[in-house]
Specification:
The structure is a single chain. The chain is mainly beta and 222 residues long. It has a single domain, classed as Lipocalin (Beta Barrel), CATH 2.40.128.110. It contains three helices and 13 strands. The protein has an eleven-stranded antiparallel beta sheet. A two-stranded antiparallel sheet has the order 2-13. β9 and β10 form a beta hairpin. It is elongated.
């Protein structure tokens, strides 16, 4: 099963990862989650409901700047799975870093060129779901030639809406040069009241999606 989803800021919140996210194409977890109970319904990933958001931080006191990516691809999801976690157990994703969208074209151009432009593979972020449990999981991310496992928090709203949250330190992906260069070209915008110019190397990411749910007539569907 393969989807290509073009995400715009007006209907966006992912993915990790965000991240820079983001946000990979690597091995997937082969073991099904053991802590997620099937409810007799079938769940299918719906790309139209997926929203990806990242938050970077500037200034000494860590003021957040948020955005998304306009282009990312998702594949490997399972149709008619027994739970939302099972539906994404083998999910793979690829995020086109230069399509960063913070609702500020001037800033986005600087991020695309001075940040992602210095990375390998033109700043593409690739990855996969390594494990997905009831309240936590692991996402494997490949960025700038470095592969890392990133722990994530899994939250369910009702039975079919999933929110995945995590944090990436881009220093772990040998992206110190990208952070330094972006801070240089955005020095004025990154200077706080204390007179210090600061761009933090870590990025938060959240991904939300609502699964299609198909239940037998005998099962409550709300």
């Amino acid at each position: 099963m393969y989807f290509i989803y073009m995400n715009k800021l007006t209907n966006s919140l992912l993915l990790p990862v965000i991240l820079s996210v983001l946000p990979l194409v690597v091995h997937c977890g082969e073991q099904p989650p053991t802590d997620v109970l099937a409810d007799g319904c079938q769940y299918t990933y719906d790309p139209a409901t997926t929203e990806l958001k990242w938050t970077a931080f500037k200034f000494t006191d860590r003021v957040g700047v948020g955005g998304t990516f306009d282009e990312y691809q998702v594949s490997g999801t399972e149709a008619d799975a027994t739970s939302p976690q099972a539906a994404v157990r083998n999910l793979k994703f690829s995020i086109q870093g230069p399509t960063v969208n913070s609702d500020n074209p001037e800033r986005d151009a600087k991020i695309a060129g001075s940040y992602f432009g210095l990375m390998e593979n033109t700043g593409t972020i690739e990855g996969s779901v390594k494990s997905a449990g009831a309240d936590e999981g692991v996402v494997t991310i490949l960025m700038n030639g470095v592969e890392k496992d990133i722990p994530v928090t899994v939250e369910m709203s009702g039975v079919s809406q999933m929110k995945v949250s995590g944090n990436i330190d881009v220093n772990d992906f040998n992206a110190q040069e990208s952070v330094q260069k972006l801070n240089e070209v955005c020095s004025e915008k990154h200077t706080g009241e204390d007179g210090a110019s600061k761009l933090w190397p870590d990025v938060d990411f959240t991904i939300t999606t609502t699964f299609k749910r198909d239940c037998p007539d005998s099962i409550e569907t709300n």
